[in-house]
Here is the input.
Amino acid sequence: MRQEHSMKMSLTSLVEPLRSFSVNIMAEDRQTDNSNNRRYPQNLQGVLQLAVDAGSSAEGPAPIQPMSEERKEWLREALAEVCKGQMDEVAQMKQCLAVLYKDGMSERERDGEEERDDENEDERESAFEILSELCENLDNARDLMILGGLELCVSQYLCHAQSGLRWRAAQLIASCAQNMPQVQVHLLSIGALPKLLQLTDSDPHPTVRVKALYAVSCLIREQEGGLQAFLSHDGFSVLMRGMQSDIEKLRTKSAFLLLNLLTSHPEQKASKADINSRFISNCSRSCFRCLSSLVEDCPEGLKDCRDPSLGLEDLLRQRARELQGKEESQEELDFCEHLRVTCFRGQQSDDNGMDR
Here is the structure.
């Protein structure tokens, strides 16, 4: 028992030096990138020898001694432990994809098997949830792309009859696309964006619309190709309609995405200031922030807000009175006052001048 415990401790002590060794090797590669004489290990024995050499050089000159068989075995186990986690996760993803690929067969064999279909749906939903969690890891997101999982989501599940599968597919796409330019470009190339915009705009299930908008956001923020595709599919109009929705989460998330895009791309303000009475009547804190952004340095947006038929000035005054004295609503009150001053103070001065 003591010997086994000693071996485990020794094995653990070898893993960290091995990782440090890997970092040192990568750093050394960058310094000698122009050299064509480096010889890379082709097998496990070569890796073991490099590890021994690196350890010796880090500690100063030391006599080279052959590694014992017992020590080699420990190091092999350490390497296997380091690689095992990623291999297990890839295997999990393949199992989940096998479940999702069975959906086509289930659709064709639906007659007389409603109970079985319910079980299959639960199984597929679980598969999506596992994949979404795994693909928070960027390496797994790239592996899922290579395995064809994203094409499966776009081609079969974004348009699936079951809303629970539609929104989970959108969520998986969002998990994979976030902060992964390679995956974003791939999803754009297979037509994911127009399908997601359509779901955001018109799906009958609220959760599907919210998750689809999240996926849209992950595809286009800080992604020039995604933004251009978004513009070509009239994405700003989708956001404006989302801000007029009866679904609170959709209104809020549409407003934040619109504000982010207008802040990072102010040149888009003039062409996207589509302000109407329904938009005004549904204004919330996030919408007031967007309006404030739209009217700054944008004559078209300012003109729309001043349209008497919208009743924006009266709405702002009424809303300000409602928020007075509410500490938790101070931010919204500030936006109301800022918007009212920006839109109507100068206009009142102009009107007074005309009266004189």
The CA atoms of residues 177 and 184 lie 5 Å apart.
